[in-house]
Amino acid sequence: MPHASERFQGAADRYASARPDYPERLLTALSGSIIEEPPAAGGVVVDVGSGTGTFTRQLRALLPVGVPIVGIEPASDMRSKADAMSAGVAGIAYRDGLARKLPIATRSARAVVAATAAHWFDRGEFFREAHRVLIPSGILAIVEYVRDTERSPAAAAVVKFLAQYGGPRAYVRPDYTAELSRTVGFRDFTHLIERVTSQLSSEAFTGLALSSSHARAAIDALGETEAEQTLFQMVAPLVTAAGHIPYGYIFHLFTVRSD
C-alpha cells in the first residue's frame, strides 16, 4: 500500500482545480481563535498536510500580516503547485516535512492546523508534535469535510462509484471528538459544523470525484474518459436547468488549546 504522500503524487492539478474552498464561517471562527489570546502578534501558524495550499491561502487572508503561515507538505508536486498558486502572497512559505516530525522549533507556533489531512497521520505522534511546537494556549485545529450522502444524491453517487470501481479505503474516518477530548496537554475542546451545497459543472463534478485518493484504481481500470462518462451518467438526472450538479458537503472544525 502506498504511503499517503505517494497517493497524491501526480494529482496536484486535478486536486487544485477540483477540491472545494472552505466555508467563511469556519475560517472566521478559526482565525478569531488563533488571534484572540496573547501574543497579539508573532508566532507562526503551521498548516500540516497543506497540499496545494487552498486552506493555507484562505486562512492567510484572514490573519494579521504579522502572523506568518508555514505549510508542511511531503508530496513534492503538491508543494510545487502550492508555491505557484501562492506566488505574490506575502507571509506564506511551504516546506517539506511530516506530521510526526514537524520542521518547526519548540514553542514557536501559535497554531497548528490540519485541513482534510489528519486522517492520514499517526495522530498520536502528530498531537505530541503539535504540543511540542505550540506556545501555551496555542490552538490545535483539525478541519475536514465529508460528503453529505444523506442530503446530496450526487455525493451518494460518488460513494457508489468508488465502492464499485475505486481502490480499497486506506483509512477509517477518525473520531476526532473522542481523540482530541482525551489527548494529554490540551483543553477547551470545540466543534463547529457547516453544511454547504456547491453547484458544480459536469467537469467540476467528475474532477472532484476523481481527485479522491481512492479513485486511482478506477482511472487505471476504466481509463480517465470512461471513468468520467460513467460518473456523469450516474448523476445526469440531477443536472439543473442551469447545467449544474448540486453537491453537498459537511465541514467540521475541531479545536483545542495547549496547556
CATH superfamily of the domain at 4-145 and 171-196 and 248-258: Vaccinia Virus protein VP39
Termini Cα gap: 37 Å
What name does CATH use for the topology of the domain at 4-145 and 171-196 and 248-258?
Rossmann fold
- The CATH class assignment of the domain at 4-145 and 171-196 and 248-258 is Alpha Beta
Sheet having the most strands: 7 strands, mixed
Note the overall shape. Answer: globular
Unreliable segments of 5+ consecutive residues: none
- Determine the number of helices (DSSP H or I, runs of at least 4 residues): 11
Order of SSEs, N→C? HHHEHEHEEHEHHEHHHE
Strand content range? 15-25%
Global mean pLDDT? 90
What descriptors fit this protein?
single chain, 259 residues, alpha/beta, seven-stranded mixed beta sheet
Quick synopsis:
With 259 residues, the protein is an alpha/beta fold. The chain contains eleven helices and seven strands.
Topology:
Layout: H1 4-7, H2 12-18, H3 24-35, E1 44-48, H4 54-60, E2 69-72, H5 76-85, E3 92-95, E4 109-115, H6 123-133, E5 134-147, H7 153-165, H8 176-182, E6 186-200, H9 202-210, H10 216-222, H11 224-235, E7 245-258
Parallel strand pairs: 1-2, 1-4, 2-3, 4-5
Antiparallel strand pairs: 5-7, 6-7
Helix pairs in contact: 2-9, 7-11, 9-11, 10-11
